[in-house]
Specification:
heterodimer, A: alpha/beta, five-stranded parallel β-sheet, 6 helices, 41% helix, B: Beta Polymerase, domain 2, four-stranded mixed β-sheet, 15 strands, 40% helix
């Protein structure tokens, strides 16, 4: 237990990252986001993520916004296990034929009003995977998308930016 | 070719003279009659080989029909056995009676090529979901990649269990966390799992078909997105297979930088996953601590190589990102800082009885089961299988900087975590040593396309384990076929074995300790 306390004090608060450029981007996104979140979703926006065919790189960067350095929860952004509690559907990947039904069902299970944000170049237009017998291309071919976050994969700070874009659009 | 291999080839082909297929580079290849395809497996199994991969190829453009291939390995010997299938006979003898690992590989061949493994015990479609048109065989040349795919009414036949108190829990494809999709179906009595059946294929996006329509450069980019967490290792494996086929030799500096990036990818993923295992035991503290270290490594990657995950830094003939003297100093400084912190966290891991209580003896994959299933990577090394392509098939600089490969036998969640802890330590050392002797020279050799019909075989040890590629050049010098075998294709079956007898609430922990790729498996 002493080791844990020691490590906590050693670590301190890391939510101020070392790289000032990176930090400015995140904080700017975050504070602007907080106001919008307060207005639209009473202090919090709950996200359900669906990987509709991604290579898993976007998932890694979305997981990273939960780490202590980006700490998305300080802006009221929270990931939920059930679509029933979600305000925003975050979708990654080109939509594979084999995930289309599960993606639509998840969307239908969410209460209105709801937002859809597609993450990554594949979510925009299918990316390197394109459209084929197995890939339906971008998320917009399946669901109404409120914002696209470009990048392959987008960095965590850009993912926070994109969520902001989606909230302003309503 | 050593004497042992020569004798084996004589046994397999039944001919006195040893003749090999010289169009396959990167492994010793020989062609046998279709009827001998399964006998070859038996002979190789008796000689101690394991099955690495099994795949098919449509060779219509060479004026032939289909062919099936199987790759075997023992120590540093790699052998590819090929059988041409006569036109009008879309079947081949199954290898499942010799190698359990062939089970899903052959279902995949059956589903995507329409070539039947005769004698296979279970021909339910795999990856091809039940609502695909039955006649859709996307990897045949006669199937256009843009073919429309209406949904048809059919059902998947799940394994059933019955009896007093037996119930079923379906999970997925959409899971609770920020992870990839797949379906798990448990039969349980109370909390005890009596059987788990996995169904995958949800993120199948036609990668192998896509390769055939891309230029070589675009294909290298695609290989870096087969499994985004292993982008470097997959791109290296693809490029090495293509380079084998073409005879292009990457520069010394490129090979060192490829190895450095592979090791950095290993460090980043292991850091994230060791933390995630702790998180699944409700020890969030270590999860957040390890995620800080992972973030530090990714930021250094961005600064040095221009991309957090190092995507597209491996190209045909070499690499596209260089490292300066300052860059080397920055990496070494980061290594010192991160490795110091890492050791503090490992001491906390070792010193937490509540964590130990969850990870010791949970999700055991016995060495016998690991061997029978043909698992690879850290999963194999946690269950007593000494397999690591960096030792078995070292490309420079791994011949000079030899990895110290950890080996445990208990096969539980702790073993899989601990092997990865040891590997992080060793990768810190390897990166440091390789950067210390980084040779000068250009970043890449000139890329030349292979000649028609030449094919290349490659094996690369990514952080998850052995990645296998086989690339065959088309008559127009494009890609005729690119076979991808992610380590997950061998390891997913092992998860089903490991969770049996465990309690349902321990499944996420067991699954996380394997952390196999859905995308790399589904392709």
């Amino acid at each position: 237990m002493l080791k844990i306390f020691h490590q906590i004090f050693r670590t301190g608060i890391v939510t101020e990252p070392l790289d000032p450029a990176e930090e400015a981007k995140v904080t700017l996104t975050g504070s602007a986001l907080e106001e919008e979140v307060k207005k639209r979703f009473g202090g919090s926006v709950t996200i359900r993520l669906v990987d509709a065919g991604s290579c898993n790189a976007c998932e890694l960067e979305i997981s990273a916004i939960n780490n202590p350095i980006y700490d998305c929860e300080r802006f009221g952004i929270h990931f939920a296990a059930s679509p029933r509690f979600a305000d925003l559907l975050l979708v990654t990947g080109p939509v594979s034929r084999n995930m289309e039904i599960a993606l639509r069902r998840t969307y239908d299970a969410m209460p209105s009003p709801k937002l859809v944000v597609a993450v990554g170049d594949c979510g925009y237009n299918g990316g390197v995977f394109g459209c084929s017998y197995a890939s339906l291309g971008g998320v917009g071919n399946v669901l109404p998308v409120d914002a696209y976050i470009h990048g392959c994969p987008p960095a965590p700070s850009r993912i926070l930016n994109g969520i902001l874009k989606a909230i302003r659009k309503i | 070719m050593n004497g042992k291999i020569q004798n084996l080839i004589r046994d397999i082909t039944g001919k006195g003279a040893v003749s090999t297929d010289a169009s396959v580079k990167g492994a010793i290849a020989c062609e046998v009659e279709k009827t001998a395809f399964s006998q070859a497996a038996r002979i190789l199994k008796e000689a101690g080989f394991r099955l690495m991969a099994e795949w098919a190829s449509d060779e219509t453009f060479f004026g032939r029909g289909y062919a099936v291939y199987a790759a075997y390995n023992d120590g540093s010997d790699y052998l590819v056995i090929k059988s041409a299938l006569p036109p009008g006979e879309p079947s081949f003898p199954t290898l499942t009676r010799h190698f359990q690992g062939a089970y899903r590989l052959e279902r995949q061949i059956d589903s995507l090529f329409g070539l039947t493994p005769a004698g296979h015990p279970d021909l339910r479609p795999w990856i091809k979901h039940e609502d695909w048109p039955a006649e859709a065989y996307p990897l045949r040349k006669s199937f256009a990649a843009s073919t429309a795919m209406p949904r048809v009414e059919r059902e998947y036949k799940w394994a059933k269990a019955s009896g007093e108190g037996v119930f079923e829990i379906p999970v997925g494809p959409v899971h609770a966390g920020i992870i990839e999709p797949g379906h798990f179906r448990f039969q349980a009595v109370g909390e005890d799992i009596i059987n788990l059946e996995t169904r995958l294929g949800y993120v199948h996006k036609g990668i192998e078909k896509r390769f055939e329509s891309l230029s070589w450069d675009e294909a290298a980019r695609l290989s870096g997105r087969v499994s985004g967490d292993s982008t470097v290792a997959h791109a290296v494996a693809f490029c090495m297979a293509a380079e084998e086929a073409s005879g292009c030799v990457p520069t010394d500096r490129a090979r060192y930088l490829r190895a450095v990036m592979i090791e950095r990818e290993r460090i980043a993923n292991h850091l994230g996953d060791i933390g995630a295992i702790c998180n699944d035991t409700a020890f969030a503290f270590l999860h957040y601590q390890f995620s800080i270290l992972r973030e530090k490594v990714l930021r250094t990657n961005l600064r040095i190589f221009g991309h957090r995950l190092m995507m597209d830094r491996v190209v045909l003939g070499g690499v596209s990102a260089d490292i300066t003297g300052e860059g080397v100093a920055a990496v070494l400084a980061e290594l010192n800082e991160v490795s110091g912190e890492f050791e503090r966290l490992v001491r906390i891991y070792e010193d937490s009885p509540s964590l130990e209580d969850r990870v010791f003896g949970t999700g055991v994959l016995t060495p016998e089961a690991a061997n029978a299933l043909g698992v690879v990577g850290f999963v194999a090394r946690s269950s007593g299988q000494k397999l690591d392509a960096r030792l078995q098939n070292p490309f420079p600089p791994y011949d000079r900087f030899v990895p110290r490969v950890p080996l445990l036998r208990s096969g539980d969640v702790h073993a899989r975590a601990w092997v990865r802890i040891e590997e992080v330590r060793d990768s810190f050392r390897l990166v440091k040593e390789m950067l210390g002797e980084l040779p000068g020279g250009p970043l890449a050799s000139e890329w030349v396309r292979p000649l028609p019909e030449q094919s290349g075989f490659s094996v690369v040890e990514g952080w998850r384990g052995e990645i296998v590629y086989w690339v065959q050049c088309a008559p127009d010098r494009g890609i005729n076929r690119c076979m991808v075998r992610d380590p997950s294709s061998m390891n997913w079956l092992a998860l089903e074995q490991a969770v049996r007898g465990n309690i349902v609430p321990d499944f996420p922990l067991c699954n996380k300790s394997f952390n196999q790729s859905y995308s790399g498996h589904d392709l």
